[in-house]
Amino acid sequence: MEFERIEGTSWHWPLLLSVVFLNICLPSLVLSYGVFLVHLAELDVPLWQGFGATTIFIVTYGLSQCWCRDAADSWGGTIGYRVMAAIGLWTIVIGLLVCAFVSYQIQPIIYGILGGLGSSLISAQVDAVVFETYDSRLGLIRGTCFAGQAVGQALFPHLLTELIETYGYSFSFIVYSGILLQALPAILLLRVNDSVKKPLSFSRYSDLAKTYAIFSNEGLDNNYYTAEVQLHDLSKKCWKSPSDDNLHREVDLNNDEVGFENDNSTITPPPSPEEKRRNIFGVEILPEIPEESEDEDEEFYASDKDVNMNKKRLSNAIKRLSTLGDSLDDYINKQIRRDSRQSENSDINEYSEVEVTYDNISPVTDIQREKIFNSFSFRCHSAYASMRRRMWMPSYRVYRIKRRLLYFMYNLNDTFIKPLTRSLSCWKFYPSLLLAFTKLSLTGISFVLLPILGTQILPPISTTEINFFMSLHGFTWVCFLLSTPWLAQTPKRNYKYVAVLGLVTSTGACFLLAEAHNHDTFSIGCVVAGFGYGAITSCCETAIQDFVGARKWPKIHSTLETLSAVLFGVFSLGSSFLFSEEGGLQFALFILGVLLSVVTFVWLILALVSIYITKVRSARLGRRWLS
């Protein structure tokens, strides 16, 4: 059954402006980090150490994104999205403030961990709010968000350079954190309009939502075809006579009738009176009068016998207790101290051994035994035994710790291990992993190395010109994103062709930048890289989702993010060893170009196979059918 799409919904301009503003400011932590890297090189910090900030940032972001997305689903509502996004923003701000007061060697670690974790929290909330609000314009809104990232990538290099030249390298982090703190009003606008109830087909959990609606009878009034029997209001049913039954009659909405103005209907049927009932023919039925029988007399006499037996047992128990009390008095009066007897005999040892049994409440089956000594060693042994029992006896605190550890292990299994085993068994996961790794590599390596690469070209390019080339890169990115309305109307099966085009362009840009030795070649490489990166970012996720299928995409999504981040971390660690050598930056870009050419070849084959199946093969089958 098809549902009508919500085309008449508004654009929610405050929310749209807040989302675009967040995409302008926050991704600049990675896209504009090359400016900090240039100044770190001037401060004699090793290039591989400064480059580690973006690597740690992306790895932290990829490993925490799946958990933050689950938290966004459970913390949703009018306040949950804003609270979690505000926590993420304060995490980023605190990380930048700490970077201003620590040494240059520790800055990349703090910048990467706190910045990646805070950005992951904010992006999860933004994605959740965008999905819940813009259901029919999701592709266009995502293109607008990417355009905001491109604008931020064009503006922030100039801003950061001005901050560093004015306030110095360390104190520029404080001003930068104050600029990012201005995103807090935009975060306060992240809310979902609960008054507009969207159909269940647009829910991220549509299968579960439809099942719940069927069993709760929510979809019956909206023309859902189900096998569930509709519940009736039993307050309208007449329990005296079927002729007066108004259950299946249409409800008259006239306010003149009694009972419709203050209708306090309930599903619970009213109790029928026992003293006056009618059968189906309208004849009154008198209440049943219980008849006496001989069995009741036998039960009465049996109950008397039980009472007499209980009285006898009680009297015998009282006699036994009195006898036991007399014997206890005799035992107490005749008690003699053991130590007084031991003082008379000199051959007896200093202490006496008494075996004491401790029956713990804990679920320990064996009985713990220890010996009591009437000396200083006795007190030491008893203190040791009591301490041991307190440590090993299960308490509620230990129980809570075990439960939390068990919950964490189950969550770790459901988030990483189980999706990993499921994803590795699917062959479509590996080309998808290569494409996701390509996007991260272009973001974390090509973007970051562009400013530092411009300083090594002969003659060296000034910082102002490098920032201009970064803005040119963002401008070409925006130029490709102008085709977002066309992409939003394009079928998802065609996104892979645009992704292949972006891979080819990015591969050529990497080889061009690897061989750039003058001003003109570097500028052309920045322009080509902007077009390629725009095509990949716009079509990467949709192409992967269409390639693996709508059913397998939720199962491999988290694994795709985590494994691609781990692969990027390994590749960045291996590339960092080349930075200390002469021409190492361009050689690292050359290796990246080789990897991109492999990914391009794989996805080109997949695109050709898709064209053969959808175009050539279907045309041949159509001709055979016509002939």
How many strands? Answer: 4
Count, helices: 21
Average pLDDT? 76
Percent of residues in helices comes to 55-70%
- The dominant shape is extended
Strand content: under 5%
The CATH superfamily of the domain at 427-627 turns out to be MFS general substrate transporter like domains
Describe the structure.
The protein is an all-alpha fold. Among the domains are: 6-194, MFS general substrate transporter like domains (Growth Hormone, Chain: A, Up-down Bundle); 427-627, Growth Hormone, Chain: A (Up-down Bundle). It has 21 helices and four strands. Strands 1-2 form a two-stranded antiparallel ribbon. It has a two-stranded antiparallel sheet with strand order 3-4. Helix 3 packs across helix 15 (429-455), helix 15 (429-455) runs antiparallel to helix 21 (584-626) and helix 18 packs antiparallel against helix 19.
List the helices and strands and how they pair.
Blueprint: H1 13-25, H2 28-31, H3 33-42, H4 47-74, H5 80-99, H6 107-133, H7 138-167, H8 169-180, H9 184-188, H10 206-215, E1 277-278, E2 284-285, H11 294-333, H12 338-344, E3 354-358, E4 368-372, H13 376-392, H14 396-424, H15 429-455, H16 463-481, H17 484-488, H18 495-514, H19 519-548, H20 553-576, H21 584-626
Antiparallel strand pairs: 1-2, 3-4
Helix pairs in contact: 1-7, 3-4, 3-15, 4-6, 4-15, 4-20, 5-6, 5-8, 7-8, 7-16, 14-20, 15-16, 15-19, 15-20, 15-21, 16-19, 18-19, 18-21
